[in-house]
Amino acid sequence: MHAHRQLAAVALLAGLLAVPAFAANSQTATPTRAELLARSGAGEWRTPDPHNLLVMQLPTGRVLIELAPDFTPLHAANIRTMARQHYYDGLAIVRVQDNFVTQWGDPAADDDDPASKPRSLGKAQATLPPEYTRPIDPKLEWTPLPDGDVYAPEVGFSEGFPAARDPASGEQWLTHCYGMVGVGRDIGPETGSGSELYVVIGQSPRRLDRNLAIAGRVLQGMPLLSALPRGAGPMGFYDKPAQRTPIESVRLASELPPAQRPAVQVLRTDSATFAALLDAQRHRHDAFYKVSSGKVGLCSVDIPVREAKTAQ
Amino acid sequence: MHAHRQLAAVALLAGLLAVPAFAANSQTATPTRAELLARSGAGEWRTPDPHNLLVMQLPTGRVLIELAPDFTPLHAANIRTMARQHYYDGLAIVRVQDNFVTQWGDPAADDDDPASKPRSLGKAQATLPPEYTRPIDPKLEWTPLPDGDVYAPEVGFSEGFPAARDPASGEQWLTHCYGMVGVGRDIGPETGSGSELYVVIGQSPRRLDRNLAIAGRVLQGMPLLSALPRGAGPMGFYDKPAQRTPIESVRLASELPPAQRPAVQVLRTDSATFAALLDAQRHRHDAFYKVSSGKVGLCSVDIPVREAKTAQ
């Protein structure tokens, strides 16, 4: 009984993630994510342009964010300008709202104290045009996800990011999935700059799509942003300054010495292995799963990231 | 400029949650959640049966879980038996996997050490029939959500929980939305008992629907489960015992002295106010939102819970 309990416990762990290691029919079981990735070809992976890769250093570790200049070019340029000026260094994570977002920026800008001095944006723009959507462009990757979506007429992947589009309006846009990084703004649409950014840490708040600019996606380090204590103030803002997590630095990978550049690769969303991963998620057949979902939701797709063997 | 920055910062905070306090057209703006709840009638709220309400005490605070005996009656009964025996007292949160689940149970059951002695289940059953779905029953509440769904033919709310159904098969089931509590199990379908439970802490893993029994929903205390450090072991299990969060106790509210019973109410999912909340989420018109989504996804709905004025 003890031995059985142990086996049961181990298998249970595997079971919740549907790792078919213990499956009786493992010969015919759906391949796992690890198995599919192990079979992938080198050409199916892309190395993010270091000019689009932000390295945010927290006391707890490193967060990598890939910018999305095909969708938000003005914001990417402004964020690059701020990073080059070391604008973000010494700022902080000021807000963590459960099942919604973690947000960082200048605490002095969120402060009611008239003595607070928000940091200068220097050569960066204080406000930018919205960039909530962009025209559909056949030159951009469009890998459709044919499974349907509640919020958009069409969804899929574009240039490695989860995205949606509406052929009727001719627009496409990035979607507020887990790990996507958006640009905080004021009431008016032309009031964001990238000086305050947020990342989605819960169920995807798709109602924000087309209402906020999406600057990019966290490639590594999500647990450093998602597991922070929730703020007790309104909307998850920390009500005590000591609760804020300081940002040690934010650098563009292209500004770092080559030896210090993060060496990561992202699976191409137009690759055969990515398609196989989606299919394995839709049609899972193994001893654990009684029924397969037959479908995969856009924000349930975790685009694989791996350490590269050598720095760029 | 400083004053402007301050206003901008304050408005930005409001803006991300679309609180229209600063909206120029606030006369005609969509009412906020708080406004709609303030107008609700007393009869639109229900008090969870204390026989279905679990009170889990952690060192960091209290988590309330409402059981769902209309969907998983055998599991509810078994969990009640374990709670009455104080089975869970002194167990621990053993796993936190980012963007997936937080899981608790008997650490000794997850241990490879043959000297580990899993706790006795006493009068509780060690395994139960699956209870992944149940027959559609017109006597149960069914409040349809007509917005569509990627995973199920029909979705909506049943007895206060997010749910799905398939008229073709005659089945209905609870869905793996944020905050829903599921029953960990072994590979075989009749291997769960409720001794190991998990809660969804990220994007809803709807592929698990109809593959695992859902025991209920966290009504209060999600941040105590979602903000925990992620485990560094496989699948988010803690690789060091010291990282586990101990469970001080789990009690049925009905077993507590009346003065100690939590006094909470849940908005009825078949109420007019709940319908108005969904509609406000679909069709948001205020100065912040450029476009309204027109739709609301099942797992994007946060069913309101409030403190009651007096204990039950």
Describe the biggest sheet of chain A?
A: 9 strands, antiparallel
Structural class, judged by helices and strands of chain A? Answer: alpha+beta
Q: Count of helices of chain A?
A: 5
Beta fraction of chain A: 15-25%
Portion of residues in helices of chain A? 10-25%
Can you describe this structure?
2 copies of one chain form a homodimer. Chain A folds into 2 domains: 2-45 and 266-307, no CATH class; 48-262, Cyclophilin. Chain A has 5 helices and 17 strands. The longest helix of chain A has 16 residues, at 2-17. Mean pLDDT of chain A is 90; it is low at 1-26. In chain A, the strands form 3 sheets. In chain A, strands 14-4-5-12-11-13-3-2-15 form a 9-stranded antiparallel sheet. In chain A, strands 6-10-9-8-7 form a 5-stranded antiparallel sheet, with no helix packed on it. Chain A has helices at residues 2-17, 33-38, 73-84, 222-226, 272-282, and strands spanning 45-46, 53-58, 61-67, 92-96, 101-105, 134-135, 143-144, 154-158, 161-166, 171-174, 180-183, 197-200, 214-220, 245-246, 249-252, 264-267, 305-307. In chain A, 16% of the residues lie in helices and 23% in strands. With 312 residues, chain A is an alpha+beta fold. Chain A is globular, with a radius of gyration of 21 Å. At the A-B interface, helix 1 and helix 4 of A face helix 1 and helix 4 of B.
Summarize the structure.
2 copies of one chain form a homodimer. The first copy, chain A, has 312 residues and is α+β, with helices and mostly antiparallel strands. Helix content of chain A is 16%, strand content 23%.
